[in-house]
Write a structure and sequence with these properties.
Blueprint lengths: L25 H14 L6 H15 L4 H8 L4 H24 L9
Helix pairs in contact: 2-4, 3-4
Length: 109
């Protein structure tokens, strides 16, 4: 968190600029997000994507759908359940990809 009086900031940031080591400004993050999503043909706002990611990760970590529903403020549990469905699909894709990967053996040192 940035202290507006002293201009100091905490080191607990996810996105730090490589040159200065300071946190990115919100406007900069939004601009970079729009450029990246446009480049890959995805139309989703940063806020939406962040909510979706947090909810999906919570579901994949075993957090109750009812708790996720409350945190997100959904009135209908069916809206929240899509995150658990996404998780099931993601897990299937990961396992399918992993089964196709060659196994590597550790060398004895």
């Amino acid at each position: 968190m940035i202290n507006t009086v002293t201009g100091e900031f905490s080191e607990n940031y996810l996105f730090i600029t490589p040159n200065s080591g300071k946190p990115y400004l919100t406007d900069t993050l939004q601009r970079l997000w729009k450029e990246a999503t446009k480049a890959v043909g995805v139309d989703i706002e940063l806020y939406q994507a962040t909510r979706h990611s947090v909810a999906s990760m919570a579901a994949s970590s075993g957090v109750s759908i009812a708790i996720i529903k409350e945190v997100l403020g959904h009135t209908d549990i069916r809206t929240t359940q899509k995150y658990s469905h996404v998780n099931v699909l993601s897990q299937s894709q990961v396992f399918a990809a992993q089964s196709k990967m060659p196994r590597q053996r550790k060398k004895n040192v």
